[in-house]
Protein: Phytoene desaturase
Amino acid sequence: MARVVVVGAGVGGLATAARLAATGHRVTVVERSGVVGGKLGRYTRTTPEGTFHFDTGPSLLTLPQVFADLFAATGGPAGGLDLGGLLDPVPLDPIVRHTFADGTKLDSCADPDTFAGRIAAALGPTAADDWRRLWRRAGRVWDASWRDILRRSVDSPLALAPLAWRLRDLAAIAPGTTLRGLGRRHLRDPRLRVLLDRYATYTGADPRRAPAALVAVPYAELAFGGWYLRGGLGTLADALLSRCLDLGVEVRTGETVTGIDAAGGRVHRVRLAGVSAPLPADVVVANVDAQTVYRDLLPSPRRLAGLADRSLAGFVLLLGVRGDSELAHHNVFFPADYDAEFDAVFGDPGRGVPARPAADPTVFVTVAADPAVRPDGHEAWFVLVNAPRQARSLSGVDWRRPGLADAYADRVLDVLAARGVDVRDRVLFREVRTPADLAGATAAPGGAIYGTAGSLLRPANRGPVQGLFLVGGSAHPGGGLPMVALSAQIVAAEIGPA
Structure:
């Protein structure tokens, strides 16, 4: 039985802790915040009209079977989408309602034939035929990724060698091609290209630089469906915490890990702020950003140099809104010039062009038709736009600058109004969350949503010293709830049973 210390009580940390405890290890989770969940955050606001509940992180659950498998492996019933008996998943249709700059609307769904029919009705039969061809290719990329990448450790490019023996898979993945290039090759309608480009932002990337293999992201969402959890996705953190406690995991919140001791090439203990005695450990699982691990907890300049800083952050408004807006659960309102948004958000530091908030951003609005999260006659809106990271340099923006956050919040509401959704006179309250706030709450460097490693190959799950492992969105296989849960599965298998 190993003494395991998990640093961070995000989804990856809790999932790993549950899997390891279920196989006999003694597990302690240490979390700097006063609550668990990490980026799966929540915010509650009580007003005279009633109480509003917001998810401040992910709002869509994909590949729910990954979590069903997790709960089954840690003591729950096998099969189906029971999700530990603690959660109530609801399939969404539409998964996302896309509104393009010309006013055209397109609802995505989990049935490929139905979605192709909706594309034909909204954009024409040629666009639908193009999408079907891209869909077949995306399916090949997904199958190869699921078989060879997503469920096993990938420590180096050599670990991808099995793909080279399957030339059809290799051709579909198209190494060296960007997601933007793939869209231009397969999709003639510019609106479908914009729809495909958006999936690069699921990994914090620019579609003009993101690898074409990310076409597997829309395939996973649209082939297996998008789901909502009644009461909000934050209930997933509650369920994972409950499972950990049932298995005897010790969860310590409000304590900050300041370092990992690894003399002699293996971990021995972790150091805690304000605590003189370190916490002994045979195994340390770091559920914090890889940049934080290799910069602060276990300094490793060589590994730190390989991490990318060009990763999206997000600017968020939490709105209490009077009345019924008749929106879908998830809504995306695209600008006329998508490239101008990426030019602004990423800037070009090499040429001296600073990053800046986009003047005309894509606006993502989540409105859950769930009476558990808002009073009658009102809506709880989560509004997200892509934003530069928090940084006092050309690569980011200092979101703490007085007046900036409120001014940009006004701008986002003006943009929504210009696109036909004007709620400025119906806003009961608003709460603004900037990349600086996310960085402070979760220790995500710069407030990067999906981790700082924004490339296809993320840092390995096995660290550079014996007994150190990485889970979470910045480690393999990447960001997003199901990928984070798969990283926990990989790490638990690498550590093995007690």
About this structure: The two ends are 4 Å apart (CA to CA).
